[in-house]
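Data card: per-record layout.
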Amino acid sequence: MNALEKLTSDPAIDRFIDTSFDLSDRIHEILESKGLTQKDLADMIGKKESQVSKWMTGTHNFTIKTLALIEVKLGVSIFQVTKGPFEPVKNEVEEPADVLE
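The structure for this 101-residue chain is written out next.
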């Protein structure tokens, strides 16, 4: 693998990272709208504040079970799985600049 190939991003990893941050942003918005802190959320779901912080900063991943628990405790939908026609995934992968020039 040459240097250029190493710079090419993986669309699946990019999608994973974007989705993870979208979830964290959504939870942050909900907490803010309800006047709650990450500590409040941790207390609500029986976790340590440090664990919630790791989820919110992307250093640890949410499980579907945890997301469902957070939705129940906050009383708000965090994410939705759509039904109906399938929509293609938008790959916003740009061609890497020629770093060898």
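Known properties of this structure: The mean pLDDT is 84. Helices lie at 3-7, 11-33, 38-45, 49-57, 64-74.

See the next section for split statistics.
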